[in-house]
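Weekly structure sync, notes
Attendees: PL (lead), two postdocs, one rotation student
Agenda item 3: pending single-chain targets
PL asked that the sequence for the first pending target be pasted directly into the notes so everyone works from the same version. It is reproduced below exactly as submitted, 384 residues in total.
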Amino acid sequence: MKTTLLIGSGVSFYSDIPDISYITNNILTSDKIGRGTDTNYYLEGYLGYSIQSYLNGYVSKCQKLINHVKLSIDQFYTHIQLEHQTNYEDIYYVLRQIEDSYQLEYENPSTLKLIEYLLVEMNLNRDHLKELITESTRFIECIVWQSIDKPFSKFDQFNMIIDLRQSLQLETILSLNHDLVLEKWLTENSIAFDDGFHLDGKKLPEWKGFTNESKNIKLCKVHGSIDWFEFRITKLKTYDNLVKVPGNTYVERIHEIDNSFTAPNSSRPSLLIGTFNKMWGYLSGIHEIMYEELKKSIINSDIIIISGYGFGDKGINTRLTNWLARENSKKMIIINPNKDSLISNSRGSYKINIMTNQTKHPKVELIEKKFEEVTFEEIKRYCA
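Predicted structure, written out during the meeting:
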């Protein structure tokens, strides 16, 4: 039996990592945010940042635009008669729709009416709006990253991993989280893991890829991580690569740790955020590699345990529902404290192929508890 554990943000709430509502409210209303001279936005106090009042205009304009976009999204959900609390993922998705259209990446003519509305409400010309759209996507990226990058002391919700490895051959953990809670637990418990980053005699771990025959737990962070930064590196030759950067490090000064790192390509971590634009992210760069690893891990699994994930990612949902139709799939165990909320907030294929309020796929079991409340014995009972 090969087991895969898939975790989402819900498993980190126990460790006091803020939820999506908290982060969204920060983005919309906080006055404790400033803009740095490196063009990033910073929460006051993050890496010692002190707000510079002469740059406050950037923040207020971004928040004004973001709030206008939120209002349009709210009106859309009212129009289609769906109860939905707009969050930063929704807002980022819409902003990226506009930005990608401007950049001729994924042109979406339906954004024109929203663009015209924003031009009037923000009293901007086309070039200034285009610039502000880019600033606002960066604003959201920065606040998401820094809101998650916070100290935590509790991480024992992962203790069952020890038993999952010993009794159910847990081989892979697919994480949709950006935080470092799981890595902290693995390190504190002296459990070796392969996340694709290796020192190879260097001062900082660089992305080298997963080791095919490794007996260590494979940790695949599908949506990136707050400690992944892309650098231009000069060693034998110049090349770009992802590097894991220690906490409390200002990446623009990374050369103080290793002078072969000339400069970050972006001084923001490599994160995949937003709603449906994640599926486009699965088509390039490190996220394509991670998504391919997710597909491979799911296909080769006999048992899949899922917790903290709301089944809102259509790219992942498709893989999970296809897996249920495979001969080798034995059991999908979903750990979630609120069945009704899970079903109402999940997307299409979940309700069709996995679970509704009245029906459930025969290979699916739901444990209606929080992740940290579940015992290994409860899980094992369903795998007999």
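Discussion points:
- The CA atoms of residues 40 and 337 lie 37 Å apart.
- Residues 20-148 form one domain.
Action: rotation student to compare against the earlier draft before next sync.
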